[in-house]
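Working notes for the structural subgroup meeting. M.R. asked for a predicted model of this chain before we commit to crystallization trials. I am recording the input and output together here so anyone reviewing the notebook later can reproduce the run.

Input as submitted:
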Amino acid sequence: MKTHFGNIGKWAIVVLLILVGSTVGVQAARDSAQVAIYQGKIIDAETRSPIMYASVFVEGTNIGTVANAEGEFMLKVPNANGNRIGFSHLGYKSVFFDRSDLKTTGNVIVLKPEVVSLQEIIVRVEDPELIIKGALSNIGKNYSRKPAMVNGFYRETIQQNKRYVSVAEAVLETYKSPYNNYFLNDKVKVLIGRKSQDVKRMDTIVVKFQGGPILPFYIDIAKNPDNLINESFFNQYTLRLTGQISLDDIRCYVVEFKQRKDVNLPLYEGKFYIDVNNLAFVAAEFSVSEYGLPYATSTYVKKKPATMKIDILRANYFVKYNKSGDLWQLAYTRSELAFKCKWPKRLFSSNYIITTEMAVTDVDYNNVEKIKAAEAFKPSEIFSERVEDFRNDEFWGDYNIIVPEESVLNAIKKLNRKLMRQQ
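Returned structure, recorded in token form:
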């Protein structure tokens, strides 16, 4: 039997390489196609506050992206495509606009919260364990049994004491293996990428993040269910059905899971969002639990100075799927790892936050070609060492990306100025 502790080291996830002490280029962006660009902000109809990580997509296609943490979005759509543009988020009513109704910039998209009737929730209450087991047994029906080529935009950042010391991002191409084949892994290739970093600022240590672009596909719980919901899951967690919520106008069960107090392992607490009608995993959000944090350091830290003490402060994860036709497909993942480094006999410590996010921007089931082993990104590789320094604003061509938040933009400008002075 596999243990949950063994699995957490495989996918959870972020593996760090911390070294005492003080690029490889990729191909240029593809030529810009004839595309229309739509930019704007997505806000809550009642509070007028930004809606973080809302989905932005072209109706009836696999083209899309997500808004950033400030609700800002940018979507590039081929001019030949006349479909409507859709906007959606967990707990909100989806809205659609004809392309002629949207401006190039300055669009303000308002989403209204969708309230689920309490009476309907009471009528449909079911056993949470049966709901999860039903979702597991329906994976082969609810997700593609065919391989696909998936394009996605990936970004990873490292902050030291709330100041960015590294920003790296890329367009990825992934061979997405069938969901009903758990033995065939997804293969990830970096098509084009760039970075900006200030290694010298990192005190006497350099924090390196291993396997970054592979992490989003490890978090794909529908493809890798045993990484979270293994044979021990129902004995290690308490479950509770907390209600229902709407996601992309689809009613979902909200199943809460929490690590049992008597289980001394780095496990999780979080929520599954499961389609009421066909029991598909629609989304999941989870964190290493308060009972698991004391046991988490050895899982996340691969190498460190012998005398340094490292405490994991939090580790958060989110995965979301979109429905295309009758099937669900991976749409967005996000992770955040925060930890504290303390040298003995030193008054001050250093806090670090490593954040990753990946938005699927296109899926092709027809032109599928396996990625060669020599081109595939390896779990042992450091992403920031595989990409070149930041260039001009037209770097991405017609690739869809996640618009960086203002704090990330400011960090890039500062890091670039420092790099130019050094050069």
